[in-house]
Design a protein that fits this description.
28% of the residues lie in helices and 21% in strands. The chain is α+β, with helices and mostly antiparallel strands. It has one domain. A four-stranded mixed β-sheet has the order 3-4-5-6, with no helix packed on it. A two-stranded antiparallel ribbon has the order 1-2. It is elongated. 17% of the residues are buried. Residues 1-26 form the signal peptide.
């Protein structure tokens, strides 16, 4: 009986560990949750299916093996031409760098 109890906790602990690590990996995926997943790369940034950019520190180009020339980022002072996915970003009044999603919302770039 005691052998069964001692040996019985190992599979349960292993299953619990597998479940916890799987949920941790899912939480660290760029564009996860309501962003709908990764649509494509915009240089090193992840462009999400909802049109916003991901706050991930990971490099999209490195993750998918894309070897593009690094393109210079344009920083504009007006809202014209800074749509997400174009490589152009707007600078807000307090120095925040963002792009505009298709719905018109601002998606800020991580510092």
């Amino acid at each position: 009986m005691s052998r069964l109890i001692r040996g019985g906790w190992m599979p349960m602990a292993g299953m619990l560990l597998a479940l916890l690590s799987a949920s941790a990996l899912a939480a660290n995926t760029p564009c996860s949750g309501k962003k709908g997943g990764i649509a494509r790369c915009d240089g090193d940034l992840f462009l999400c299916n909802d049109g916003s950019i991901s706050g991930s520190k990971k490099s999209c180009a490195a993750m998918f093996g894309i070897r593009e020339q690094a393109r210079p980022q344009q920083f504009l002072q007006s809202n014209d031409g800074c749509d997400c996915g174009t490589g152009s970003f707007c600078t807000g009044p307090r120095g925040g760098v963002y792009c505009l999603t298709p719905s018109g919302k601002k998606s800020y770039k991580r510092k």
